[in-house]
From TrEMBL:
Signal peptide, first to last residue: none
Source organism (scientific name): Gimesia algae
Protein name: DUF1501 domain-containing protein
InterPro entries noted in UniProt: Alkaline_phosphatase_core_sf, DUF1501
Pfam families: DUF1501
Length: 454
């Protein structure tokens, strides 16, 4: 039943001169057969937003060993192959490391890229976060990272959630950290619930665990603002830190960050790690629950969520061989990544959320005398899933030693063009202005999205 009221003239009557107590009740609208349910459905259709497209980017700090994970060479000499053996997956003809049984049974939902070329040789996260080669000339201010560009081009999906959220833990080795918004400016920085903004607020009585206590939260923020105003600090806060003050009071975002709101069985499926334990002191913590938080933030409205995971720079050494470290990391990685993959499919996010997992380079084919693998920029690898992509396939191949790409070389610009494409951003025609007002294309050269995936 619908109640139609006229305009109030201030004298107790409406434009049709009926009093406030008069009303017209309509059960259906008979004009041209349009019923009220159809009218409401049509109105809803006018205002409905497009389905949200999103990306979760997982940076494996330090460079993961492709030949021990997804591109094993069991027929190679022992000093190349190592001790791990390949196992079959649920896609005939595709094999991966025996330490990843869960992922092996989900291969039909995965894409393995075994032939990334053009990686840098040093530890620098920049190429993993913006797709640009740091050895090449860059515009003043530097290239913005992927999430910053998406935030600039698409803005928030919903008002209560920033478009770009970083779950990356600050690493003491500077080049391991995200490169920042570059020439797009600080207003396109990510919201960082794990970064300096969070530490500042923790010092004033705010932590992620207390976000649900809205009264206490608001009081803490008020105290922080008063202290900041008295010291003149507020003038130095960038726009995203100011936005964070309001964002943290959003119950939707607060609940996304609060894993106590999640089903305990789901949390257990991902596994948990210690966020205060930075691997080898300068890497990132091994925190599988970050992947669960990322999924929850995507559901809360974020377009891009980035996170760094563990440390994969295994040169070997006394009591620290690469294979010992792999035996520690691989099972945890298998558990949390397969949980994220399963979650996306169970929750209907697999067509809209793209997940990209990679590091800055591959590792040397030959195992060193210290029982480690060193930096190897000549070939790199990636794991992709979701985003409505064509999964259950391997792209590219390396030689018998895993040291050179011999089929379908893939570049970071192509991978980033694919991520942009999955968000509805066509890189052939889209530009962003640098500090000088000069338009800059999003990816290098004429890189196109990988046709095998779209």
């Amino acid at each position: 039943m619908l109640t139609l009221l006229g305009q109030d003239h201030g004298d107790g009557s409406f434009c049709d001169r009926l009093s406030r107590r008069n009303f017209l009740q309509i059960g259906s609208l008979g004009l041209t057969g349009l019923t009220l349910p159809r009218l409401l459905q049509a109105e809803t259709g006018k205002t409905a937003k497009k389905r949200q497209k999103s990306v979760i980017m997982i940076y494996l700090v330090g460079g993961p060993p492709h030949q021990d994970m997804i591109d094993l060479k069991p027929e190679a000499p022992k000093e190349i192959a190592g001790p791990w053996r390949p196992i079959s997956t649920n896609v005939p003809g595709i094999e991966i490391c025996e330490a990843f049984p869960r992922l092996a049974q989900s291969m039909d939902k995965l894409v393995l890229v075994r032939s990334i070329v053009g990686s840098q040789s040093g530890h620098d996260a920049i190429q993993c976060f913006n797709g640009h080669d740091p050895r090449k000339l860059t515009p003043q201010g530097g290239w913005p990272q992927f999430g910053s560009t998406v935030a600039k081009l698409q803005g928030p999906h919903i008002e209560s959630a920033p478009p770009f959220i970083s779950l990356c833990y600050p690493c003491t080795h500077g080049p391991y950290n995200e490169p920042g918004p570059g020439f797009l400016g600080l207003s396109q920085s990510p919201f960082r619930p794990m970064g300096p903004t969070r530490h500042d607020m923790v010092l004033n009585g705010i932590s992620l665990e207390r976000l649900a206590a809205r009264k206490q939260l608001l009081q803490s923020i008020d105290n922080f603002k008063r202290e900041a105003d008295a010291s003149g600090m507020m003038t130095g806060l960038d726009t995203f830190t100011e936005q964070a003050m309001g964002v943290l009071t959003s119950s939707q975002l607060a609940e996304a960050l609060d894993l106590s709101k999640e089903n305990p069985q789901t949390v257990a499926r991902y596994g948990t790690g210690d966020p205060t334990k930075f691997i080898d002191s300068n890497g990132a913590p091994r925190v599988p629950q970050s992947m669960l938080v990322a999924r929850r933030l995507i559901e809360a409205g974020a377009r891009v969520v980035t996170l760094n995971y563990s440390k994969w720079d295994w040169h070997g050494g006394k009591n620290n061989s690469i294979f010992k470290r792999e035996a520690e990391d691989f099972p945890v990685f298998d558990q949390c990544v397969s949980a994220l993959l399963e979650d996306l499919h169970q929750r209907g996010l697999d067509q809209d959320c793209t997940v990209a997992i990679w590091g800055e380079f591959g590792r040397t084919p030959k195992i060193s005398s210290r029982v480690g693998r060193d930096h190897w920029p000549r070939v790199n690898s990636a794991i992709l899933f979701g985003g409505g992509m064509k999964t259950g396939q391997v792209i590219g191949a390396t030689d018998r030693l895993g040291g050179e790409a011999v089929d379908r070389p893939v570049t970071f610009p192509e991978l980033f063009a694919t991520l942009y494409h999955n968000l509805g951003i066509e890189t052939q025609h889209t530009t962003v202005d640098d500090f000088s007002g000069r338009p800059q294309y999003l990816v290098e050269g004429d890189a196109r999205p990988l046709p095998e995936l779209i």
